[in-house]
């Protein structure tokens, strides 16, 4: 986050890069090798196979017939079947299969043949991409798909390949290379990437609903796979107008969830006029130098004061009486009348908000970023606001409302141009901490919303829709 009084400055846009899932995939592979990636905790079921029955990968050019290509072949088979059923109802014309087909590349082999849009196999390292000129899709079976499987499970491979076919979809729907070149402001890369993420979400919903012939994806597997979207976000500080921008984690997960929740017609209707992108550049030298992160105790003091102002207005405008909570960070384990809310807690009896300022919350602050701390604290203020208005603070509805109100607060901070506000990457930090941990989704008795997808969705509803989306109209 950033404070008032910082010198503002601009950032020139970057050079053009190929539209590939994997501009960020290279970063992902490097991060996993170095051990610097943020972990998204999973469950054993997230590592289970997503295939009901495998598909023979012999139709894939260059395949070695191995397990990775069998998974990829199974994924693209079900995605193609989905669009054969769905494309005409959405776009009014029949689906045309990819004339250039599919390519599996072993980027570690000098003998491997290059895929379309490349001159040598090594150019595919860590990549999966759609090649418009050849109407083909290629993936690296040695340095991308195995890494995705190990880190995020088989469902991550499905999402990546569904995203790439999503690019083929928007090309067939009339948003292709020509349109992007002739009208770059109308069809920027960040928009077509959001479309592809959205189409991937629509397909995955058909899988979770049991509509795929060969695939199955559980809630735990979906949560783990969404971690891949977080890792594939643009570097912090990338402008949304950058010609190679794919989107930050908040925007990418939002697009995926929109497709998942509302289907492909919504994806097809995306435009720069109706799609809000939250990706921003750094606005000060200091903010850029510290990566947009405040020191832990300074962050607590600053965000607590700002949260108090926001929730005081929210409660009093609705006829309630707001009493500023006392925020304590000196306990390793918040107590709150014996109820275990984890490392962040709202205590209704005393009106206190307690954080584990010794171990767990500082760890998340360091590993994810300062707005992981801000997000968790905001959810406790969301419970405090419900309590001040005489609303329940126990149960799933209370937990979802707390998440939503934390999002509503975040949305107001995001919109500020001066003073205390969000830094680039803060919304991504919120997504990461909510996707990976249930701390911010616990009610006052410690009962939590277990689905990371649902936790992010509740927060996002508030961030985009304000308090009204949380039932505070």
Walkthrough of the structure:
It is a single chain. With 473 residues, the chain is mainly alpha-helical. The chain is built from 16 helices and 6 strands. It has helices spanning 23-34, 67-91, 145-152, 154-172, 177-182, 189-208, 219-231, 249-262, 264-268, 285-289, 296-316, 360-367, 370-388, 396-414, 426-436, 452-465, and strands at residues 101-105, 128-131, 136-140, 327-331, 344-347, 352-356. A 3-stranded mixed sheet has the order 1-3-2, with helices on one face. Strands 4-6-5 form a 3-stranded mixed sheet. α4 packs across α7 (219-231). It starts with 22 loop residues before the first helix and ends in an 8-residue tail after the last helix. The model is unreliable at 4-44 (pLDDT under 50).
Brief rundown of the structure:
This protein is 46% helix and 6% strand. The protein is mainly alpha-helical and 473 residues long. The longest helix is centred in the first third of the chain and has 25 residues, at 67-91.
Furnish the topology, listing elements before pairings:
Blueprint: H1 23-34, H2 67-91, E1 101-105, E2 128-131, E3 136-140, H3 145-152, H4 154-172, H5 177-182, H6 189-208, H7 219-231, H8 249-262, H9 264-268, H10 285-289, H11 296-316, E4 327-331, E5 344-347, E6 352-356, H12 360-367, H13 370-388, H14 396-414, H15 426-436, H16 452-465
Parallel strand pairs: 1-3, 4-6
Antiparallel strand pairs: 2-3, 5-6
Helix pairs in contact: 2-4, 3-4, 4-6, 4-7, 6-8, 7-8, 7-15, 11-13, 12-13, 13-14, 13-15, 14-16, 15-16
């Amino acid at each position: 986050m950033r404070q008032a009084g910082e010198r503002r400055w601009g950032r020139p846009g970057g050079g053009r890069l190929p539209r590939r899932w994997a501009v960020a995939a290279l970063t992902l592979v490097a991060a996993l090798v170095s051990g610097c990636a943020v972990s998204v905790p999973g469950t054993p079921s997230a590592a289970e196979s997503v295939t009901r029955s495998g598909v023979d990968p012999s139709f894939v050019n260059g395949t070695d017939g191995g397990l990775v290509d069998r998974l990829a072949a199974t994924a693209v088979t079900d995605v193609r079947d989905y669009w054969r059923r769905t494309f005409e109802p959405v776009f009014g014309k029949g689906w045309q299969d990819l004339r250039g087909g599919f390519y599996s590349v072993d980027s570690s082999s000098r003998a491997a043949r290059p895929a379309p849009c490349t001159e040598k196999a090594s150019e595919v390292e860590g990549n999966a991409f759609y090649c418009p000129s050849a109407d083909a899709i290629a993936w690296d079976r040695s340095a991308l798909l195995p890494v995705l499987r190990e880190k995020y499970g088989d469902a991550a491979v499905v999402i990546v390949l569904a995203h790439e076919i999503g690019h083929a979809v928007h090309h067939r729907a009339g948003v292709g290379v020509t349109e992007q070149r002739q009208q770059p402001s109308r069809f920027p890369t960040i928009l077509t990437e959001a479309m592809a993420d959205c189409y991937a979400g629509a397909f995955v919903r058909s899988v979770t609903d049991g509509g795929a012939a060969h695939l199955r994806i559980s809630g735990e597997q979906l949560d783990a796979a969404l971690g891949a979207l977080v890792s594939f976000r643009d570097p912090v500080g990338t402008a949304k107008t950058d010609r190679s921008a794919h989107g930050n984690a908040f925007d990418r997960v939002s697009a995926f969830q929109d497709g998942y929740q509302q289907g492909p017609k919504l994806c097809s209707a995306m435009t720069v006029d109706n799609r809000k992108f939250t990706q921003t550049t750094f606005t000060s030298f200091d903010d850029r130098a510290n990566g947009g992160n405040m020191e832990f105790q300074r962050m607590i003091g600053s965000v607590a004061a700002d949260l108090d102002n926001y929730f005081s207005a929210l409660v009093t405008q609705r006829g309630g009486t707001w009493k500023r909570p006392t925020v304590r960070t000196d306990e390793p384990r918040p107590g709150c009348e014996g109820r275990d809310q984890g490392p962040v807690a709202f205590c209704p009896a005393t009106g206190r908000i307690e954080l584990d300022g010794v171990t767990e919350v500082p760890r998340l602050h360091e590993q994810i970023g300062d707005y992981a701390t801000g997000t968790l604290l905001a959810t406790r203020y969301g419970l405090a606001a419900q309590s001040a208005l005489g609303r329940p603070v126990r149960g799933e509805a209370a937990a979802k409302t707390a998440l939503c109100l934390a999002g509503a607060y975040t949305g107001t901070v995001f919109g500020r141009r001066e003073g205390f506000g969000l830094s680039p990457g803060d919304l991504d930090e919120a997504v990461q901490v909510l996707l990976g941990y249930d701390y911010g989704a616990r009610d006052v008795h410690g009962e939590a919303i277990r689905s990371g997808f649902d936790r992010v969705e509740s927060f996002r509803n508030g961030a985009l829709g304000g308090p009204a989306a949380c039932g505070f109209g």
